């Protein structure tokens, strides 16, 4: 595989560019017999769609998915499922001046060195956050597969925007309503503060980062393959393919490394005949395998690189310092649009491992 | 691949068990023409060898590597390089009582559910930290390859043990001497405090975690493949295969997500005719590609799970609560032995990408 | 990979169904900087297009390719190249009666057992020869890449139809004109006999098989990776994915196994300062590596399974014997449409190995 | 994977050289719970061992396998199974003169061009037929797995040596006794003629080729993944990694391409309530999937390249013509030693697909 495919038995191949004709994906290895239609995917796509609110980019894309193969009479056939979203509101002119001025924080410079003049620089081309739509295409199917066959629930939400941290640890009830606010934070009061922080940043021509938390419940014990296909390895690999992600941690994560073994170890007990742990500092993964507790992970996003503030940079042609104001339409903070993307990758990886470990069969 | 191999063009396959006959590795895809002998590998192995100091396990293993294929007249041939370390001081009896009592924080429980009675539980078997020796086998060769062909330097060191953080940001000079102290911390004063913290934890029958930082310099611009083979994706996948790792971040990482774009963006400038960035919050990676700045990443280790303190747990046979004191010989903190392992994985991943991107040829 | 992708660095992923919306492909790993436009692909597609002559199926498909990603301003960017052919003349009704009557020689029976009722049986669905169009999509690009960068020429032609064998060993001049006759045989007189044989078979409600020979010249010495990525291994794997292929041989092949080493060994000599062999019984491959001589291979196709003659079979519902006349529009012999498909796979495999061995760089 | 590993879920990695310290293999992905000991493997190794009879090389190797990981208390654990055979009778001196004189029919020339002076030329190094011992290591386990879990039987035997073809189509009874004669031909009378032909060739300083047939019974319907992981694709890929193989065909193969559809199609019928076909021209594979009939394939081996007759060649140093008599100890015909190797690859591929298709679970 050469960087555009991920997975072992459930393989997502992504294609398309931010300002090309389309973005799309091929999902191979999905078991035959899953009932699927476009609206199953559309719902998750809509949560990530641009142009929906004040906190996101003003690019208008209806992001309508079309399934063009692999589904027959409403069910998957076992053949690769190809899906396309035709780009509508691309505006490549915004990017003409960028061909020589390297945008700080973006892939412009290494991509130019690597791909030379052939790089499709328009809106970041292949490096654009827009490509995360293709991950949602596959992820929505994986998520439905996990839910239908194993009853697995995957949800993620905003835990922090800039310096604003969530006040109350979200309950499962709170999580159900995250799409009722624009920042996708389960704590409504925190959500308001977060929204204000984003709007303030936009007003200042600046941007913010933040942290997404993902929780997956009802997974059986024993998913994962030691050593290099540990759940943590495969989840981290997938999550780091999201642009702007600069940190991934599981369970107690970085904070846990300051603790003691006697505190951080999750002690076993029995509840209603089922073996569980009293705490979940491991984030549901031991030795790379699921242990039956919720998979809990957090993903750190850097502040969006595109800001309208003037920045100093280099003109690659003249090799001289210059100034740059990034035009185009951008997210002042990508975090509110990220939960469906995180859900997509968590679902893709877990569904792949459910297939690898035999929890889901190749034909339902 | 089924969990015991990693890499695309430079592929490490690990085998062996903690208390079996041996641990070993096959490194496939190493270019023909690299001068290599056992002592090149032994040096790095010795840095992670157990039984060396008060801060690590008392298991005595000389960990002597034997190259059994792939090297001819002192040079690699392009054929797979198989390497073996014969286990000497295994003591499987320590683990007999553990077959039914699930050790908190260990893989025991999910591994038993997954592999049933067939799991080799002795000392964690395939899940043991001892397997990181096999990663060093391949990593030492990858590191030499990067150094010889591209002049790349990879180093990692202890940044934090428990709550003790390093005082002074390490200089390249300080990094050179990290193996002069037992905790592998470049700041000698911090090292003393860290050592004391570990010995205190051991005395209390407890354990500590910590954080390793890795810095790689002199990498060319343009390593990495977007999207799913981004450097961050592949590095994180590799690093998460190390037991006890629960967090990985690049550049400004989790802290960066609290910042603003205008602060976190690394501005370009020119120094001695070379394009560089004034800061390095990206950790040397933009759009998944190396940008020529040092690759900087941090790895969080949870406190070692094996502690001699009494812990409550479940007996899997009786399905009743019970008590457990973990015997055997264990590290009160695995962090001081981790730098060569982190170096190994960083080197394996970067050498793989140097091959993929054409910076290193299949025959030197 | 799960059966719909092939290649290591140059990866073709195929999607679509015979009577679905479309067939298509994603080619990943093509170096940036190759000048490509739709007509480069269309030419090769046209050679395999149905409905062109008396010797092929009457299904009318214009098979017009559309490139939807990966090409920018006329050049490949290094991103995945997605290509689509929309199906026009599908007529699924022809196949309604086939859902329970298993067609002899087709995938119907094992596909039904494997995929149950979810299998897309229309026209063979995913198993149809129509899918070879998707291989030509990628193969045309690979072929151009090999030609442009290394000057490699790949051609294949009909060597035998039924019992009619080619009379004269084709010269390179003869090969140039193979598309001037309907059976794609470089020997015009043999071509006439072959055409007659096919038309006779059709008249009788029967079908024929045949043999394609492929010759590739100008390949550098040293492509291929021993052991499991030998050129023969990878070429055979690719060629066997073509429906109806039941034999693949290289150089002197099956006939060579009746010979002696002293006759079959190709002796080295020097011609114009270049090391060559006097004969080419090895088919240009020694030890799995190209040796600089032309790559010569032959592919045996079984007689087309769809015949209009009445055949006895089983009704899967009643589990009783029954009779069947295969309706629909079919090729009485698939061989004349196969040369571009064989060229496609030979090109894909050799281009992949040219990338793996460093003869072609990731960016041109 | 880089040429030394094969398989998707059951992955064999081969290492070692003909005249190095050892040859060995790592088999990854074997389900936990298979009872295995060295003698299970040794039996199959012994059938391939050199120095056993007049028809094979006089190199004496006891080829004793040692399992060094992955088996615990007599059962596989799910961990990689590493196995080693230490070389005993290597005699590298035989090859000193060969460093500049290119042996016709061998990999010497392309390997020298590709790997330069780093190639391990001793006895063919990595290209030697000796490496097929490593395939038997993994294949013996795969074969036992298929037998134990699914009752599958795989056998192969000599069908032809030089121009001597087997007289009588072998029955299953005849197949049971193939190891009672030195050429492994189930027809005793043919076997005598074949042996004489080999001894005659040796006497003349020459060599012979031949054909192996493989028959696998009792496979369930539905193994295989269309398109690129068709059973034919994966079997051919594996079989072509055996040195000297120049042809692979399934069922009626090349002969079938001279037939008519009405004759070559296998008609369905019912026997004892089971759907079978009256003939088996498909070799048990339709659409790349097993159809429940025996898998039948044939493998063509070229005459052994090492002959003691004087041959003209080129001295690579002087770039001048020269003469060569290949010394060392060689097989006048490799075919009699090939059946266990063919069995090994057929078993590895089918077991891999049995895992992929869910017929064998990851833990027994």
Please provide a written account of the structure.
The structure is a homotetramer of 364-residue chains. Chain A has 9 helices and 18 strands. With 364 residues, chain A is α+β, with helices and mostly antiparallel strands. A 5-stranded antiparallel β-sheet of chain A has the order 1-2-3-7-4, covered by helices on one side. A 5-stranded antiparallel β-sheet of chain A has the order 9-8-10-16-11. In chain A, a hairpin with a 5-residue loop joins β2 and β3. The radius of gyration of chain A is 21 Å and the shape is globular. The model of chain A has no long low-confidence stretch (mean pLDDT 94). Chains in contact: A-B, A-C, A-D, B-C, B-D, C-D. The interface between A and C is large, with 46 and 46 residues.
Question: What's a concise summary of this model?
Answer:
Helix content of chain A is 26%, strand content 23%. The first copy, chain A, is an alpha+beta fold.
Keyword list:
9 helices; five-stranded antiparallel beta sheet; 23% strand; 18 strands; alpha+beta; homotetramer
Please work out how many helical segments of chain A DSSP would assign.
Answer: 9
Class from secondary-structure proportions of chain A = alpha+beta
Estimate the helix proportion of chain A, in percent: 25-40%
Distance between the termini of chain A: 27 Å
Order of helices and strands of chain A: EEEHEEEEHHEEHHEHEHHEEEEEEEH
Poorly predicted sequence stretches spanning 5 or more consecutive residues of chain A:
none
């Amino acid at each position: 595989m050469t960087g555009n495919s991920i997975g072992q038995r459930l393989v997502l191949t992504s294609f398309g560019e931010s300002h090309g004709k389309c973005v799309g994906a091929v999902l191979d290895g999905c078991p035959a017999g899953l009932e699927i239609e476009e609206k199953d995917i559309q719902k998750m796509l809509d949560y990530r769609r641009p142009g929906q609110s004040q906190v996101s980019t003003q690019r208008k894309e209806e992001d309508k998915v079309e399934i063009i193969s692999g589904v027959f009479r409403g069910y998957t056939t076992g053949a690769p499922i190809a899906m396309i979203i035709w780009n509508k509101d691309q505006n490549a002119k915004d990017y003409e001046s960028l061909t020589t001025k390297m945008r700080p924080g973006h892939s412009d410079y290494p991509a130019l060195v690597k791909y030379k003049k052939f790089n499709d620089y328009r809106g970041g081309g292949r490096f654009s956050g827009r490509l995360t739509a293709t991950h949602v295409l596959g992820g929505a199917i994986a998520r439905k597969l996990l839910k239908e066959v194993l009853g697995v629930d995957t949800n993620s939400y905003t835990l922090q925007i800039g310096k604003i941290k969530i006040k109350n640890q979200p309950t499962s009830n709170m999580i159900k309503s995250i799409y009722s606010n624009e920042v996708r934070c389960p704590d409504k009061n925190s959500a308001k503060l977060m929204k204000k922080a984003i709007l303030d940043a936009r007003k200042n021509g600046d941007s913010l980062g933040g942290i997404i938390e993902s929780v997956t419940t009802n997974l059986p014990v024993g998913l994962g393959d030691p050593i290099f296909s540990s759940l943590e390895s495969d989840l981290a690999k997938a999550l780091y393919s999201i642009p702007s992600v600069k940190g991934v941690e599981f369970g107690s994560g970085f904070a846990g490394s300051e603790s003691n073994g006697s505190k951080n170890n999750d002690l076993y007990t029995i509840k209603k005949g089922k073996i569980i742990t009293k705490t979940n500092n491991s984030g549901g993964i031991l030795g790379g395998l699921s242990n039956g507790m919720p998979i809990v992970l957090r993903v750190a996003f850097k502040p969006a690189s595109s800001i309208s503030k003037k920045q100093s940079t280099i003109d690659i042609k003249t090799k001289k310092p210059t100034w740059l104001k990034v035009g185009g339409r951008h997210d002042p903070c990508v975090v509110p649009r990220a939960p469906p993307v995180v859900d997509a990758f968590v679902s893709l990886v877990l569904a792949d491992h459910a297939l690898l470990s035999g929890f889901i069969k190749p034909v339902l």
